[in-house]
Amino acid sequence: MKKTVLGIVLLILSACSGRVEPVLFTEVEMVLATPDGLGVRSMTVDPQLPGNKFLNLNTGRNYPYPAFADGKALLTVQKGVYTLAFDGKAEMEDGTTRTLRSYAHADPIKAVNLVSGRETLVLDVIYLY
Q1: Domain ranges of the chain
Q2: Is domain 25-127 annotated with CATH 2.60.40?
């Protein structure tokens, strides 16, 4: 009897262990959209600046932004509801350097639900200078 119960428990644990990670996380592709359509060659976001956030409202975890290349970046996060905002230093397609701001999802009322295996967020940015 003990061997049967132990066998069933081990079978259940082994069946669950392979499914945990893909179910809990989503890969987010962020795409920058500038007001004039000018491409962003690269951009970095300083995690130390107040207001820069990619915050999971369910867990309170704040994820650092990855470096953007060709106007895109990938980030793997736990599924949930997120507020996000940033000021980033960007090298533009025309060779200029600008500060870009995205704040459309900074407020919990405008939070985004990231619950699929893969999500794409188009982030409208404004030029600060």
Answers
A1: 25-127
A2: yes
Place of tokens 């956030």: 53
Contacts by 56-59 with C-beta closer than 8 Å and gap 24+? 56/80, 56/81, 56/82, 57/81, 57/82, 57/83, 57/108, 57/111
DSSP state at residue 112: E
For residue range 76-111, list pLDDT tens digits in order: 999 999 999 999 999 999 999 999 999 999 999 999
The per-residue DSSP string of 15-73 comes to HHHTTHHHHHEEEEEEEEE-TT---EEEEEE-TTSTT-EEEETTT--BPPPPPEETTEE
